[in-house]
Amino acid sequence: MRKPIIAGNWKMNKTAAECRELITALAPKVKDATCDVVVCVPFTDIALAAELTKNTNIAVGAQNIAWADSGAFTGEISAAMLIEAGAEYVIIGHSERRQYFGETDESVNKRLTQALKNGLKPILCVGEMLAEREGGLTEKVCRTQVVGAFDKISASDAEKVVIAYEPVWAIGTGKTATDEQANETIGFIRSVVKELYGAKVADGMRIQYGGSMNAKNVAGLMAQSEIDGGLIGGASLKADDFSIIVGAAK
Ligand code: PEP
Prior knowledge:
By secondary structure, this protein is of the alpha/beta class. Helices cover 44% and strands 15% of the residues. The protein has twelve helices and eight strands. It has an eight-stranded parallel β-barrel with strand order 1-2-3-4-5-6-7-8, surrounded by five helices. Helix 1 (16-29) runs parallel beside helix 12. It starts with a strand and ends with a helix. The structure holds phosphoenolpyruvate.
């Protein structure tokens, strides 16, 4: 049995004051969750979020990690800094990083390696663009991204990774993949993990769906056999919506 995991991706939203307000409202609403609950917050909110979630069932994550330990990498943030601030999880390879900030399968692999080396729990994002889905390339793209991300990563490290399947055309658009589309592609991604690491790792790996998941569509998605939770953008910014999603992930 895989324990579902619901993670909020706040993206570049929420000042410290807003972070305080959201977590204070959220914590009592999700206290009885039977899934893992994570909020991936902007770097400047991590320490505060860690403080506010102490003695709750909410874990804190970041949205990126440098591949190097330290040094001349302007604008990047190291594993040690994230851990010191209180991050437990880190999103790696989000499509917005791939689209707008030049993230490649190679850089995703380096960041993933660094997160694992430092004991951070990675949420690795993969997913196809609209033209790729329409061109029948969904599986090819997902395979390339998964194989690239896990290059030279051992099975014992791989099993610590959560994958988020996020079709790019469904992110922030209000368009969700159908339950069947999401389930089918996640099943395919699991089969790629099985090719790489065998059935035990594949069967144990948690693979989330992400892309306009909300309080209304979560039940249908979570009822699918392959879907182990969600990575939630827009709907994670409101305590009521996010807590409904958490409550549906049983
Ligand atoms: C995301 O940012 O990972 C995401 C899925 O966003 P949204 O839920 O807003 O589509």
